[in-house]
Amino acid sequence: MRFKELMRLATWLGLLTTLAAPAAAAQEGSIFEQFAPIEFNGYIEARTGVRTQNDPEEKPFSMAEVRVQGEVFTYTDWADFKYKGDVRADGVINRICYETRELWIFSRPTDFMDVKIGRQVLTWGTGGLVFLNDLFPKDWRSFFIGRDAEYLKAPYSSAKVSFFTEAVNIDLVYSPKFEPDRYIDGEYISYWSGLEDRLVGRDDILETDIPNEWFKNDELSARIYRNINNYELALYGYWGYWKQPAGMNAHDEATFPPLNVYGASVRGQVSAGIGNIEVAWYDSTDNRGGTNAEVDNSQIRYLVGYAQELWTNSNCEVQYYVEQMLNYETYRNVHDPKYPKDEFRHVITLQFTQQMMNQNLTLGLDSYYSPSDKDAYLRPNVQYKVSDQTTIGIGANIFIGATEQTFFGQFTNNSNIYASLRYSF
């Protein structure tokens, strides 16, 4: 029996076990009487951003939206329930958009198993805003235009089953239908198109062929971890598809070829701070030898990081990330690219936060610099809590690059500044 089929079976068993709890509880009285009072909160927010230079492919406004988010939570003796959704009026794309960010049930049917099923936001791995073994969907459009950092991690329709033993803990996540990253496609941010050999934007939205058949184009993620002497060691696996376009079909549509990922990490105290090491092998199963010109090559990704509190209410994290393309010589010979990628892409990241004024003022900086690509990305931001309900913020997304063909360099026309006002209730 295939591993995915075993996971499907485990998911259904977990679901049936979870559903058995309310059935048993119903024998004790009305099921509605078992729910705790509903907790409700949310916010309304206005957020506006403008480009700092002209971009002929996009509007001058990088962001112009009003958002209302609501969150509902309740629980019983046998399960927790949560809903979180938001509606935004988006002036950049001239639409009103709704999204369910969370809609799940969580239950612990036994002492050694947790089950969480529904729409949820998931993450794992050791990187800070660098993701190797975390193949859950990311929203890079939101991140690059200046939405709140919570929107970088996109919601995911899945079932998560966790097992706890004295030897190891196991997390299994199954999604019946592939969900890609919310990648850069030209709608909000212009980008370099190798097909067009130029920068393109909202008038040339990227055409894609996304695998979308239920239970056929599914995804499976796994993590096995344990603590040894206060160090967390973990093994990871993923069986699905490239989360961003990594191929091209005969109709000039960007594709998401099959992908397996295998990795490991260790995280724990180093001197006065926390250190981490993580590695992942991206097995591009349709191009293992590098001879398929229509699919990206396999990769190995490496990450070393260190975080430490520098002084009171401050934190600094430095990371060194390397992306190695496998079968590089074959790639050069088969693709004969006009703008060849490097065999090794190096990126140095720095994240810094400082809280002041009784933690009402937060200064932050997320920065990426690639010495191999000769490009960089800076994301400074300031937030001030005016009252318990009101928060104001300003920030910027600054892209720097020597050429338009590198990852951050292609976005230089999208550098922007933004401001926000949020009222929580």
Structural commentary:
The protein is mainly β and 425 residues long. The protein has one domain: Beta Barrel (Porin). Helix content is 9%, strand content 50%. The protein is built from 3 helices and 23 strands. It has helices spanning 3-26, 140-145, 328-335; strands at residues 39-51, 61-75, 80-90, 95-110, 113-120, 156-164, 169-175, 191-193, 198-200, 208-209, 219-228, 231-241, 247-248, 254-255, 258-270, 273-283, 299-308, 314-325, 344-356, 361-370, 375-385, 390-401, 416-424. The protein has an 18-stranded antiparallel beta barrel. Strands 10-14-13 form a 3-stranded mixed beta sheet, with no helix packed on it. Strand 20 and strand 21 form a beta hairpin. The longest helix has 24 residues, at 3-26. It starts with a helix and ends with a strand. The model has no long low-confidence stretch (mean pLDDT 95).
Characteristics of this structure?
425 residues; 3 helices; Porin; mainly beta; 3-stranded mixed β-sheet; 23 strands; 18-stranded antiparallel barrel
List the helices and strands and how they pair.
Elements: H1 3-26, E1 39-51, E2 61-75, E3 80-90, E4 95-110, E5 113-120, H2 140-145, E6 156-164, E7 169-175, E8 191-193, E9 198-200, E10 208-209, E11 219-228, E12 231-241, E13 247-248, E14 254-255, E15 258-270, E16 273-283, E17 299-308, E18 314-325, H3 328-335, E19 344-356, E20 361-370, E21 375-385, E22 390-401, E23 416-424
Parallel strand pairs: 10-14
Antiparallel strand pairs: 1-2, 1-23, 2-3, 3-4, 4-5, 5-6, 6-7, 7-11, 8-9, 11-12, 12-15, 13-14, 15-16, 16-17, 17-18, 18-19, 19-20, 20-21, 21-22, 22-23
